[in-house]
Design brief:
Length: 381
């Protein structure tokens, strides 16, 4: 089968690989119909995630058709069209039972730090992902969800990560009626978080990025204010000025680690003197939030990124909430929102590529070319 194959930092290819097989009675094999590239894949692509092995297939956002099931799979049958949460979760462990599917203790038993994730290096279990014609899905009674009536395939695709993550970012912010919410990052996650902030009763939503086309997209998609940090001397002071010098009630970090080469050039171009592995957006979030406010972190950081200004957190009494999204916990509510047209997550898809063009797709998304917001790979266009 054709599959995305990691060859090293900034080098990916579409290559031939063996079709995956059932390895466990609870496995299913899917024929992938659509898969996304996520900002989280860019951390892998940039070589910033430890133990990302050459030959791995990325892809944790995918939908497909069930081809084969192990003999303990009861909830799926061949031919079902399913969406699959990006977390691999057993559904039985102490964490899954609390709805903390991203912390599953069984799917990545070698780690106490992170549960299993499709296509996310050996730190997340070493599972191959869905940027391929076929994918093996472990614990198939738990994750895969039959795409409900009235949900378009590409909306379903956005339910595997982007929409739940944007929603969880807003939820972790503990937004109260009338709150001012600042979202750092106008990528797929940031603009979705901004859109979802209104559902929790925000009175004002502000997005910060440095890419004009994304700011413009955020204004339209999330009906928010959006500002370019490159045009500010000091983004924190700017945000204080427009919030009566109090700061925001809630700040959301939808950026993550500064490890991206492309982004670093821009930032060093502004002489902000930052190093790879630092956390610019998170610093801004902590410094721009009100005393007693909440900082919600969905941006992904690596083990060495530990540059949080903890003194400011303590002195201001800031609450920090963070996490990989527990997709399955949020699916029932979000499926309803999509069915009722409260949310239209597929509207952020700007690019569709055949799977064989995966190298070009990664390049365009990573370098933020061609006004790309969210790219989708199609194995059989
Ligand atoms: P993306 O790369 O498309 O978007 C990131 C955006 O941040 C870009 O538009 C970039 O210009 C902007 N940016 C860079 N530095 C900034 C700064 N200092 N201030 C404001 N904006 C800045 O990625 P994405 O798909 O939107 O993902 C965003 C983050 O969310 C990534 O770190 C990704 O790994 C993470 N993520 C987390 C989860 C989770 O479960 N917690 C799930 C999906 C994605
Ligand atoms: Zn993702």
């Amino acid at each position: 089968m054709l599959a995305m194959n990691y060859r090293g930092p900034f080098r990916v290819r579409a290559e031939d690989k063996p079709v995956p097989e059932i390895q466990h009675p609870q496995d299913a094999i899917l024929q992938v119909t659509r898969a996304c590239i996520c900002g989280s894949d860019l951390h892998l692509y940039h070589g910033m995630v430890p133990d990302t092995r050459v030959g791995t297939t990325f892809g944790h956002e995918f939908i497909g058709v069930v081809q084969e099931v192990g003999h303990s799979v009861r909830n799926l049958k061949i031919g079902d069209r399913v969406l699959v949460p990006f977390n691999i979760a057993c559904g039985q462990c102490v964490f899954c039972k609390q709805g903390l599917y991203s912390c599953c203790h069984e799917s990545n038993a070698m780690s106490t730090a992170i549960g299993g994730v499709f296509g996310y290096s050996h730190i997340a279990g070493g599972f191959d992902g869905g940027q391929a014609e076929y994918v093996r899905v472990p614990y198939a009674n738990i994750g895969p969800t039959v795409i409900p009536e009235g949900i378009d395939e590409e909306d379903a695709l956005m339910l595997t990560d982007v929409l739940p993550t944007g929603y969880q970012a807003a939820e972790m912010g503990g937004i109260k009626i009338g709150d001012t919410v600042v979202v750092f990052g106008a990528g797929p996650i940031g603009i979705t978080a901004a859109r979802c902030a209104w559902l929790f009763g925000a009175g004002r939503v502000i997005v910060i990025d440095h890419l004009e086309y994304r700011l413009e997209f955020a204004r339209k998609y999330a009906s928010c204010e959006a500002y370019n940090f490159k045009s500010m001397d000091d983004p924190v002071l700017f945000l204080k000025r427009i919030t009566d010098f109090l700061g925001a009630d809630v700040c959301i970090d939808a950026v993550g680690s500064d490890a991206c080469g492309n982004m670093m050039q821009t930032i060093t171009g502004k002489k902000l003197k930052l190093q790879a592995g630092s956390a610019t957006a998170l610093h801004w979030a902590i410094n721009a939030v009100k005393k007693g406010g909440i900082v919600s972190i969905v941006g992904v950081y690596g083990p060495t990124d530990n540059l949080v200004p903890i003194g400011n957190v303590v002195n201001k009494g800031v609450t920090i909430r963070a996490g990989q999204t527990s997709v399955k916990r949020l699916l029932p509510k979000l499926i309803e929102h999509v069915q009722n047209r409260v949310l239209r997550p597929k509207d952020i898809i700007t690019h569709r590529f055949a799977l064989e063009d995966v190298a070009e797709a990664y390049h365009i998304f990573s370098a933020k070319l061609d006004e790309c917001i969210k790219p989708v790979l199609i194995p059989h266009p």
